[in-house]
Amino acid sequence: MKVFTTLRATALALACLVLFPSFAFAVPRVAVLELENRSGDPRYDYLGGIVQGLLLYDLSSSGAVELLDRSSIAALLAERELSLSSIAAAQARAFEGISTADYIVAGEYVLLGTELRLTFKLVDVATSRVATFSDAGSTENLVHSLAEAMVERLSGKRPALREEGRSRSLLSLRDETPGSISLFSPLIDAQVFLDGEFVGYTIGDRRVPFVIEGIDPGDHVLSTDLGADFGVISLPAVTFAPWSETVRVVSGKRVIVTDRSAHFNDGLYRLRSVLRESPKVSFDSTGQYSTTLPFSFQDRTGTLRKGRVLLTLKAPAGEQGQGSGTAICEFDGQTRVEQLVYTLETDADVEFAIGLALFSIEVENSYGRVDLDLSVERTDVEQGMHRDED
Questions:
Q1: Is the pTM of the predicted complex or chain greater than 0.85?
Q2: Which residue among 6, 40, 176, 310 has the highest number of C-beta atoms inside a 10 angstrom radius?
Q3: What pLDDT is attached to residue 337?
């Protein structure tokens, strides 16, 4: 009886192979994503394309997998934003709904001296299980070895992809094609420095760049200098320095950079003015007007300072056009109350300081109209102070 059962099961399996041959030889569908350069050096961006090309060739020649074409991978990426980090942190069923691939291969690499540390993560789309393959080396055999391990994981059989003694160095294929920088600057005839070396003068036209050609790929320090009155103000300490920026130049590419330099006094003027309002004074049916104006700023230590002005006015009356009002000024927990009296001939004009805040209030009755000007300025910033710090 047991022999009969075994024979029947074998016959059924053979029938399935005859009736459904595609089922018998089904291979997993694999999508290989672009590799991430974790070295922090754009000069090694070229390695991602080389490694991906070698891996695609190995997987294809193994005959154990079906590689998805570029359009299928693009659709997959549009459906889910995928990266190596997101795959590594994926929760169960995180990739549910992605039907174009059975497996996704994501990779990253980092340069360790003269060797390349290469890591692939093979994620099972159906279960979100991740298998990691990692090794270090400097030749194509590094990729071939990891590809062999992945194929073995997918098919149960390990192909022979390495070529001992014949593998080329990956690092020798580095692309050192120079790049360039286009610098847009508002300054006229400011000196331009690249890595501390003088390279020319700014044009002064915001629409026309100063172009630096023939720059080696990598990080470079770009700066401009137009003397003691121009540069960048650093907050909250309010310190002054010429504009400088670290620029990453990519092989064969042009980088667009904007010079943020400005006249220091222009920036100090904007910093000093904390509140500046001239609201329209409209009295209600009872002859009253009121407004509340809050303000805040960070002082030079980075501490947030807050305050507000509560102002009430009574409409002018009589031949002298006399009106009155009250200003309640609050700052840093302190309060000051000022009485305001104004006529056709005399304005109400008060100015006082509470801590770092300088309050100025003016009320004018002119031609039957009452005008109000109110401002708050911080006293720890003033124009010209950049010269005192030189």
A1: no
A2: 310
A3: 97
Cα four-point dihedral sign 246, 248, 254, 258: negative
Whether residue 236 is preceded by a cis peptide bond, meaning omega within 30 degrees of 0, is: yes
pLDDT digits (tens, 9 = 90+) for 19-66: 444 444 578 999 999 899 998 777 788 888 889 989 999 998 888 889
User: What's phi and psi for 8, nearest 5 deg?
Assistant: -65, -40
Q: What kind of architecture, by CATH, is found in domain 179-260?
A: Sandwich (2.60)
Residue with tokens 């055999």: 141
Percent helix, strand, coil in the chain (nearest 5)? 25, 40, 35
User: Where do the domains of the chain lie?
Assistant: 18-171, 179-260, 273-385
Measured CA to CA, the distance from residue 100 to residue 303 in angstroms comes to 54
Cα(354)–Cα(261) distance, integer angstroms: 33
Q: How far is it, in rounded angstroms, from Cα 31 to Cα 170? A: 23
**What percent of the chain has a predicted confidence (pLDDT) above 90?**
60
Q: Which residues, other chains included, contact 207 with Cβ-Cβ below 8 Å and sequence gap of 6+?
A: 184
Distance spanning both ends of the chain, measured CA to CA: 102
Write down the architecture of domain 18-171 according to CATH. Answer: 3-Layer(aba) Sandwich (3.40)
Alpha helix (H) residue ranges in 122-194: 141-155
Q: Can you tell me the distance from the alpha carbon of 355 to that of 376, in angstroms, rounded to the nearest whole number?
A: 12
Kindly state the DSSP code that residue 44 receives in the 8-state scheme: G
CA distance 388 to 261: 19
